[in-house]
Amino acid sequence: MTAVSTVAVVGAGVAGLAAAIQLAKAGVEVDVFEAKPELSALGSGITLQGNALRALDALGVWEDVRAAGFPFEGLTLRAPGPTAPVVAELPDVKTGGPDYPAGMGMYRPDLAGIMLAHAERAGVRFRFGSTVTGIDDTGDQVEVVVDEAPVGRFDLVIGADGLHSAVRRLIGIDTEPQSTGMGIWRAFVSRPAEVVRTELYYGGPVYIAGYTPTGPDTMYAILVEKAQDRSGVSDAEATQIMLGESMAYGGPWESIRTDLAAGAHVNHTWFTQHVVEAPWNRGRVVIIGDAAHSCPPTIAQGAAQGLEDAVVLTELLIGRDAVDQAVWDEFHARRLPRAQAVVDASVRARAVADRRCPRRRHGWADLRHRAADGAAGMSVTDVHAHVLLPALQDEVRRRDPEGFAAAEALDAVRNGAASQAVSGPMVGARIPKLTDVRVRLAAMDEQGVDRQWVSASPNHFYPWAGSSWPSGWRARRTGWSPSMSRRHRNG
Ligand SMILES: Cc1cc2nc3c(=O)[nH]c(=O)nc-3n(C[C@H](O)[C@H](O)[C@H](O)COP(=O)(O)OP(=O)(O)OC[C@H]3O[C@@H](n4cnc5c(N)ncnc54)[C@H](O)[C@@H]3O)c2cc1C
Description:
The chain is an alpha/beta fold. Helices cover 41% and strands 24% of the residues. The protein folds into three domains: 6-69 and 104-177 and 273-348, FAD/NAD(P)-binding domain; 178-271; 378-489, no CATH class.
């Protein structure tokens, strides 16, 4: 016995497809209404973290996903510059547990195709080209209206219709996604053999540059810039922008630029954030996935959270015999705090990436986050990523002695000669605390620290900018605020 016999799912994205697969496998009659004429998955690639892979396993699609994707462990940080020097190899947390890789890159249409095939095999009916425009909840059932015409009555409607959800509006929720102030360029390109995991670059003209492998020969590349209106930009202009903004990055970016110049498709979108407050349902209509929450993909969790929504909701609907308040209470108790925590963490990671504005990154917004953590009873310590960089500094000193001397002079003014005298040994002592996960956890235990905040220290990348940057660039970007100075003195 399940709590529902018939369900309408609005939207055939990952969240809607996941809910449809689970319910249909349990014998529920499922109709999926999708506005697009066929399944298409915009964007080039996606990173599926371990928790997303675990959810896909619960749906029964993991084996197909594993065969189609590119699994990897760890994260590589590189610096701008002609050779893209590797700054650090960081271990990844296995968010799905030991049975899954820490992460996997995938071509989005492949993921969509696999999920569609499983849904169809489970008996899900798809109604493509059907835009849901109305919903009428009569208490025991919900009537669904497509293009102003009623199309059927269902025990439950799941609104998985994405960021600009019509279902959300139709049930009277007025929360809308907000821009986080960043936009992203993405391109699907060929994978140089040396790229075997996600690699990110902090520093240079954009907030973040990077790429993630998606298959034996493919990967997707990203450039995260300040949000700006790119709506009128033609395909050719988009390619030129991506080529231009990537010029500060060497290594695998050479191959990416070759593909861009040869016509690799480029796409642009903004980062958003929102979390709908509880409840996510009104009567027998509930929203999940991006309709309920969105976050910048700084920790690649948007789709993962939509998958988790679907797995938890369907588990409750399959395990109970009525759609009652207990179902909604448990659904919200299990999903809302988690979705909220992920959105908060993603936005925080965005703040760290926002190294163009030291006052914001190191100043008030950061302090507010810390205050929030303190209020939650959580102790926090900050470790600047510059402790990772002595080797890089040596290289910088060698390549750009003048720029490095300027940065050192600024550092001396900012932190004082005494601080500089101790920083070398201090850096040496701290490296394992960042790079070796066991040493790092032990150090946190020893200090009674719950959460360690690692912030990029872009000053140490500045000399890479070289002479091609506008004059004054270095000085402007190394502006500092009192709070930043205090924390530098503290280590
Ligand atoms: C740049 C970028 C990169 C990202 N990278 C990652 C990543 O690496 N890892 C990750 O986990 N997440 C990532 N995300 C987030 C992830 O893409 C989304 O969270 C996820 O795709 C949302 O899935 P969804 O099913 O909720 O919504 P969607 O995928 O948006 O699906 C909604 C569907 O509903 C349909 N629809 C809309 N309105 C109607 C209507 N009225 N009637 C019928 N159908 C309708 C739409 O056509 C669409 O097919 C990224 C997001 C962005 C913007």
